[in-house]
Design brief:
Layout: E1 3-7, H1 11-21, E2 26-30, H2 36-42, E3 47-51, H3 57-67, E4 72-76, H4 80-88, E5 93-96, H5 101-131, H6 142-154, E6 161-164, H7 171-179, E7 189-193, H8 199-207, H9 224-227, E8 232-236, H10 243-255, E9 257-258, E10 267-268, E11 272-277, H11 281-286, H12 292-298, E12 301-304, H13 315-330, E13 336-337, H14 339-347, H15 353-367, E14 372-373, H16 399-406, H17 420-434, H18 439-446, H19 450-460
Helix pairs in contact: 1-5, 2-3, 10-12, 13-15, 17-18, 18-19
Length: 471
């Protein structure tokens, strides 16, 4: 429970505080007797409220700011000079009397929310050096070592970067690594997927809108470019931008200025742009799907992330990394892998890349009944839902594992034969229908992770009108 210290001699303020805050928070009242510094040195508070009508109100404010890290809320009369002086001396905010219960409640909640967010941001900032330490990235394979060397050269610049690579190769992680190793690392890192937001909302998401700009725009909203001022914007799947948005984005790249939807004010934003795509943009240009001038604007620095099948030297270390991470999240004690499992990993072609490896290991942890993951807990490729597939005929013994390694199509001996993909698609759709098309519930029913079912839905082209964006 959050702990507040309230310094006042005013009974009305005490009553309001007790009625509006007393149930949810622990309140202590300071009657302005004795030495407040001793109390502040002994007890850590989450918020300090000071009535500036006390004769020594400013002195109490300074003492609180010098001893405690808690925000100080000043309450006083409606004189501008008193409010200005309180803010100058370190008050987080100033509330003019008369104070209503609802007003003080709303301000207190806003202060605590901001403080909680600050703690979270400070924690994440401390973690970034560990998470994005370039020398700690798993990179034994020459192809990924070249990528890391390129990042080290370009992360200190402000040049626009285009990251290419198959789905699941780690483009989002790479963008974060570039940002948090740049001079912008203490500023916002804002990422947005151009593929996962409906076209009608994406423009507002990027550039913001004014109140009344369109139906449902009840208030002004700043966009991602404005939020990320002095930081970095990561645009994933930039190849999915519509022609109209490509044109508007090109204007922003050239001038670093834009207007919110429905607005006339020109806004400047100093952001670094990192874009990513799994498409061949040069081919998209030839087919008319992507602007050539925009391509050359974003392709100042080009980085290609190799697929996992070209990083076989990294497979084992990546596997243990995901094992440790998922065991921590799932709270399960798995020590390692049977040698046969690691051999399977090294022989498999990993069409879903690092994301697929992560999902396979997460599922293996959930299914494992031992302290190491064995082959019977691992499913690869089209065999992701083994319990739903018909048993293999006697002459095909061992073909499932062979198919996982070689990625061959199942034999089709007659018109009634279904492929594994067809069977899997049917199983997933049946589970979704049973669970009212809620992916999380369907994943639980099938015994797989939400990430896995999302990946399979995309791969198999399953759609439903209730989903915000048909994948």
């Amino acid at each position: 429970m959050a702990r507040f210290l309230i310094a006042t001699q005013e009974y009305a303020l005490k009553d309001i505080s007790k009625n509006m805050l007393g149930v949810k928070y622990s309140l202590e009242f300071w009657p302005n007797k004795g030495n407040i510094s001793r109390k502040l040195e002994k007890i850590i508070y989450d918020l300090i409220v000071i009535d500036m009508e006390l004769a020594n109100g400013m002195e109490l404010l300074e003492s609180a700011r010098s001893i405690q890290s808690a925000p100080v809320l000043a309450i006083g009369d409606n004189r501008t000079e008193q409010a200005v002086e309180a803010i100058k001396r370190g008050a987080y905010d100033f509330i003019a009397k008369p104070v209503s219960g609802e007003k003080i409640k709303n301000i207190v909640e806003r202060v605590l929310e901001g403080r909680s967010l600050k703690y979270e941001i400070d924690y994440l900032r401390r973690q970034q050096d560990v998470i994005y330490d370039l020398d700690s990235i798993i990179a034994k394979a020459p192809a990924i070592r070249r990528v890391i060397n390129t990042i080290k050269k370009v992360c200190k610049t402000d040049s626009t970067i285009l990251i290419g690579g198959e789905t699941g190769t780690g483009k989002s992680f790479l963008a974060g690594a570039i940002h948090f190793n740049s001079h912008r690392k203490k500023r916002p890192f804002v990422d947005i997927s151009c593929a996962n937001i409906p076209e009608t909302l994406l423009e507002s998401e990027l550039f913001g809108h004014e109140k009344g700009a369109f139906t449902g725009a009840a208030k002004t909203r700043i966009g991602r470019f404005e939020q990320a001022n002095e930081g970095t914007v990561f645009l994933d799947e930039i190849g999915d931008l519509t022609p109209a948005l490509q044109s508007k984005f090109l204007h922003f790249l050239e001038n670093r200025t834009f207007q919110r939807l429905g607005g006339s004010k020109t806004i400047h934003s100093d952001v670094r742009i990192i874009a990513a795509t799994n498409k061949n943009l040069e081919q998209e240009i030839r087919s008319g799907g992507f602007r050539e001038d925009l391509y050359y604007r974003i392709n100042v620095i080009n980085i290609f992330l190799p697929p996992l099948k070209e990083r076989m030297e990294d497979i084992e270390e990546l596997a243990f990394y995901f094992l440790k991470r998922h065991c921590r999240d799932i709270k399960k004690d798995i020590r390692g892998f049977h040698p046969d499992v690691l051999e399977m990993f090294k022989r498999y072609h990993w069409p879903g890349n690092i994301r697929e490896l992560s999902n396979v290991i997460e599922r293996g942890i959930l299914l494992s009944e031992d302290t190491i993951i064995k082959k019977d807990s691992i499913t690869l490729g089209n065999n992701i839902l083994p319990c739903l597939l018909p048993p293999a005929p006697a002459q095909q013994t061992g073909s499932r594992h062979r198919q996982a390694f070689e990625h061959t199509e199942p034999s089709k001996t007659g018109p009634s034969t279904q492929s594994l993909a067809d069977i899997e698609r049917k199983a997933i759709i049946e589970a979704l229908e049973t669970c009212l098309w809620i992916q999380k519930d369907a994943a639980e029913k099938l015994g797989i992770s939400k990430r896995t079912i999302n990946y399979k839905i995309k791969k198999l082209g399953i759609r439903h009108p209730r989903w915000r964006k048909n994948i």
